[in-house]
Design brief:
Oligomer: single chain
Keywords: Coiled coil
InterPro entries: Endo/exonu/phosph_ase_sf
Distance between the termini: 18 Å
Strand content: under 5%
Radius of gyration: 26 Å
Mean pLDDT: 76
């Protein structure tokens, strides 16, 4: 999920296409771009068609809790299809929270076996009486290199996937 910090706000004209009468606050430049996109493609920003109290419209809260904005929108080609966006918005918020928690989890670069090998090697290097053959045997084990290679490949794949998604989203926002 990617946020463009879009604030659509309220209708500028009573019959503005693609946007309902129940927006929140003011529109920013990104919001203007989204409204133009929606109008051009005959879509609808569903959140703006449903009447809700202002305290229930916001989908983003600043870290200090002072600022509330509606920045998540449900876009649909038929405005009669969705009766309430609460569940959809809650689903988006849950997905965003899941993404945040996944990012907080640090991925393990090395397996436990590779970590043990490194620790054993450190201990052997500290001991001056250690047989050099033992250290060489540990150095020749491929587990550490394999783990690092897997980790690098995984990070490259993740980065390429994110870039592809970003490019697709940016091309639709132009």
């Amino acid at each position: 999920m990617i946020h463009f910090k879009v604030k659509v706000g309220i209708q500028k004209e009573p019959n503005e296409q693609g946007i309902g009468p129940f927006g929140l606050e003011k529109r920013n430049s990104r919001g203007e771009t989204l409204v133009n996109y929606v109008q051009k493609n005959k879509l609808h920003l569903m959140n703006t068609y449903l009447k809700k109290p202002k305290q229930r419209r916001w989908t983003w809260l600043s870290p200090n809790g002072d600022v509330k904005n509606e920045i998540d929108y449900v876009i649909c080609n038929d405005k009669h299809i969705i009766v309430d966006t609460t569940e959809v918005t809650n689903g988006l918020l849950l997905a965003a929270e899941q993404i945040r928690s996944n990012k907080k989890e640090k991925r393990q670069k090395l397996s436990d076996k590779a970590k043990n090998l490194i620790e054993t090697r450190k201990q052997l290097l500290k001991d001056r009486n250690t047989n050099k053959i033992k250290i060489t045997e540990i150095n020749n084990q491929k587990k550490i290199r394999e783990d690092m290679k897997k980790y690098r490949n995984m990070k490259i794949k993740e980065t390429l996937k994110k870039k592809k998604i970003l490019k697709e989203l940016r091309s639709t926002m132009k």
